[in-house]
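Recap from last week: sequence in, structure out.
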Amino acid sequence: MVVTDTISVFNIQRYSLHDGRGIRTNIFLKGCPLRCLWCSNPESQSFSAQKSYNKSSCMDCKGCINSCPQNALNQDGRRDEDKCINCHQCKETCPTAARQVIGKDWCLDDLVDEVLKDQAFYQSSGGGVTLSGGEPLSQPQQAAMLISALKTMGLHLAIETCGYANWQNAEAVLSQVDQILYDIKAMDSTTHKRLTGVPNELILANARKAAQLDKEFIIRIPVIGGHNNSQENIQNTAEFAADIGVKEVHLLPYHRLGESKYENNDMEYNFHAYTPEDDELKDLKSSVEAYGLQVKVGG
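Predicted structure tokens:
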């Protein structure tokens, strides 16, 4: 991979109270090697900038259609990708921001300056910055440089990762942060591949190594009703966590909050699952606690 001084970002979320302690700024990086069937950020999967169209925000003024130099937009607002030259004139013309370009290459120095705008909130709450995605380890050199720069500012740094990366690249990033939020979707590799598109051997091997880095290490399990929420899977994950020295596990209930993004990005959401009820989550929580682990429901 060619190292550049820019990093591809698709969202900067300020004043977040999740994904780490205190008040945080979450930086969502573009690109992910997994294709989780329930992905709530489908716009994060590609490394390239993507065009998004939110039909519910459109006032049907036809400004985008009339402004397109290639006549690449039809009357219902959909784009002919063969004609589109990515001039983004449609976005510039849209008065309601129904048309967006998802993804921006940030100069690392400019991104650091952007993050430091909220430094007062970090200091007052004990918060900091969390790298998320997508998968931050998919831009390992850039993520490492960003974290190194932020570290000199004395900020608390966390990363949310699935751990699917070459260990050398992963270690360069994970060794610099204060907190690692490590997702494990399924302990059975066949199930993991069905749900995410990749097997889990590399993820589990990297988890063992990352747990030895003397960082605050938390395993997070997305609880997807009807897919990975069996007692067997949850207990196997808890056993693995205890075996590698993890102290805390988070159970993240499945939700459908990102479903509308699929239509906006010309993608289909065909996944069927349910959100576990409180009683089920309570039982799963007890199963994990039986291994001597602290458990939190939610991030």
